[in-house]
Predict the 3D structure of the following.
Amino acid sequence: MIVTFTANPSLDRTVDLGGPLVPGGVHRISGDSTQPGGKGINVALGVHRAGIDVTAILPAAPSDPLLALLEAEGLPHRAAPIVGPVRTNLTVLSSPQVTTKLNEPGATLGEEEIAGLEQLLISSIGDEDIVMLSGSLAPGLPADEYVRLIELLQARGARVGVDTSDAPLGAVAAALPGTAPDFLKPNAEELGQIVGVSGDVLESQVSDGNLEGVRDAALNLHHRGVGAVLVTLGAAGGLLATEGAAWYCPSASSPVVSTVGAGDSATAGYLISRELGEAPGLRLARALAYGTAAVGLPGTTIPRPDQVRIAADGVVRL
């Protein structure tokens, strides 16, 4: 089974202005939707829609509206009770194809709430389960929380993936090779945070046909103990380092409706592929196909398998 952990879930509200965003101006909203959000929840939705067993673990009060949305989605989940409300993240869609995000910090968790959340996660896994630790940490959690969870979960026989950024990602990188996740999913900016290079520079290099920077950075993480490193590069494609080698695949062209949830969809595609026992090149192709499908959907919509078009013929082993 796949278990996702969302330490700082959200209600994702998306508004479409139907025109340009003008600072200081008055705008009329032409579209408005609210969906369950948080990176681990997004991943779980993608896996669930593919018919694979998954459970989403998160903190939320019993009466929080997020839980009603998860029930409506039919997503299996377990929530550790907290006092504060789940945060609301606002995405503003404006022309020409601009996405602006305004994220709340989330409720601060107390010591008892943190202990309850950790215990819920530990009690929800079995031997050989895959646990995906995704997203930012709620206020109150230490920056090295994911490092501690990797150790606890791997000791129970689970395989652990991480998708995060900033200080939590820095803590994971600093713990290598002693404590290493089985799977790491940085985008270009996050990979740049680890190696000290601008994410824009890495994406630009790939767009110009120079894969060495991203390849070497991903392989370095792999050789330092990370089982698989999936780097998503937006329109420039993606790269996977695993099993002592690296593979690259370009992204298929697609109209951009919303980029929110694209990286989480790619993570879901990778985990689905791994559960299906597919080879590394096809894992990469399926991950990018899920990400490409997501950008063509509104808001934080995570694609169904019938909305995904896999182009494995573009995969190149480097």
About this structure: The radius of gyration is 19 Å. The domain at 2-317 is CATH 3.40.1190.20 (UDP-N-acetylmuramoyl-L-alanine:D-glutamate ligase). Residues 280-295 form the longest helix (16 residues). The chain has one domain: 2-317.
